[in-house]
Amino acid sequence: MTQAEKTVVSPRVERGLDIADRGFPLVWLCLYVLLPTSGWASVMFASWHDQELFLETLRSVLANGRAEAIDDNVVGPAYMALAALVHWVFGLGPQDALVALNRASYALSVASALVLVRVLGPEDYGVFALADAGRVWLDGERSRRWHTAAGGGLWFAYLRRDHTVTVAVARSAEKTGVYLATGFAF
To answer: What DSSP assignment string belongs to 84-128?
Structure first.
């Protein structure tokens, strides 16, 4: 995009949009993790069969310091240790500690994905459409048939616009093709 084609936005608005773009996921994750867990426990335990086993195991760990399910390698000891730590640090009941741990692990995985997308994600990207028509011109070829194709795809530019990866799908009467190309610059 040339400077003449660029939309003019005040620096203040641009900075505000940048802060909102970068800050929204963090705010959302914090609210998600910090919301009260009590109401979620009954819903979570009604729908997840494994949670009953985890709850029984956590109750055994809290009461006895150990659990048969951990000894039998059915439940991971690190997961139960974290659930017990959440129980003791935040003063939550066993059910709420498991819910909080599940929510925190979900938030951590979403945060990790966002970091990976920000770090490894494309600098620029776009969508394109394509159409083609052609005829075979060979000596001795008498066909007047025109071959047509249409399709579209995505392009991603990593680091710079000349580091581009393109994925396209084109369909004709003869076949459908998937094409991968690298290095086409704008």
So the answer is: HHHHHHHT--HHHHHHHHHHHHHHHHHHHHHHHHHHHS-SEEEEE
Q: pLDDT tens across 52-92, in order?
A: 778 888 888 888 887 777 766 666 788 888 888 888 998 88
Residue 88: name the closest of 79, 80, 99, 97 by CA. Answer: 97
The pTM for the full model equals 0.44
What are the residue boundaries of the structural domains of the chain, listed by start?
Answer: 31-119, 124-182
In 3D, which of 169, 135, 133, 166 has the Cα closest to residue 149?
Answer: 133
Q: Is 22 in contact with 111 (CB distance < 8 Å)? A: no
- Where helices occur in the chain by DSSP H, the ranges are 11-34, 38-47, 49-64, 68-71, 77-90, 94-120
